[in-house]
Amino acid sequence: MTSDRGNERLDRLRKELASQQVDGMLLMVEEGLNWESVFYLSGFRGSSSAILVTPSEEFLITDGRYLQQASEQSSFKLISQGRSSLMRSIKELVREKKINYLGFEGDKVFYAHFRALEELGIQFRDLSGLVPSLRRFKDEKEIGFIEKAAAIASEAFLMVLERLESGISERDLANDLEYTIKSLGAEGGWPDHGFVVVSGPRSSLPHGVPTSRKINPGDWVTVDFGAAFEGYVSDITRNFVIGEPDARAKEVHQILQNAHLTAAAELAPGVKCRDIDGRARKCIEDAGYGEFFNHGLGHGIGLEVHEKPRLSSLSEDVLEPGDVVTVEPGIYIPETGGMRLEDDYLITRDGARRLTSDLAQELFLI
User: Fold this and answer.
1) Structural domains of the chain, with CATH
2) Fewest beta carbons within 10 Å, which of 42, 238, 306, 360?
3) What pLDDT, in 10s, does the model give residues 22-36?
4) What is the reported pTM?
């Protein structure tokens, strides 16, 4: 991470901390949990660390496994915890800096760690969601990483389809796709969970886990996948049929494409996310399938597959320039099958741009 990008992010964080009247902000990484926000601010990407940001300084604490990596990746003042525990090193630093009001992330800190922090005898302010909110705005470099992740995932999907044969299992297809994504230069698929590959009646499971089920001619097959590049992810869903699809498959896919395009045309700064959801949902309801669309329309992506903002009927979010969001209407008919059509969009100053434009939205026929 360049110093200019890091300084700009720290400036935005410090402005928020001043408004919250805290002396510092603590973020922790334990067993990899919350590496995204620590990486976003510091540039360091390891499985165990803590950062403390005060009005004038920024510190990174980690252990001997990561000292060289941390010195190469981050401009923060590096503190080795030595033979001490991470928590003890944090407490020593907080005392040294005479912090009286400490911001932390209640949704990311283990209960045992919070109890240990309470021994400091200081005041705490739960600022959960603060850094993820800062991460909503994607700069040009971040957008480039997401576009690269989308391009790799799209190319890999087409390559896998070219060599796909009837009788392959859902699990083997998922493994082949992830291997191909890695071979094309990505870090891999999604860092926190596997792809969705579901076929036949199982395609009515929006987040179905791939199984040993064989994919047969005529099956509806839904593949929800993506790639990670420089930490940033893409998120795409496509559908295919081996052989000739039945009339209902064609109908469902056409409805989804209409709903998708209708919603995508409304993406722009200042638009309420629930209104975007409503436009797609109305298309599906008008076609008689409203009861089979059982999730929100989309979500933000970036360092995580699911970030702010949320596109759903319950969302209070409003789109802003720099947001990257998915649009993914779905129809899932129990005991018959389902489909979803998903692409990633950058919200620009005057509308939106599809970042997953390398892959056609058609129902693929194999």
Assistant:
1) 3-134 (3.40.350.10), 140-365 (3.90.230.10)
2) 360
3) 999 999 999 888 999
4) 0.95
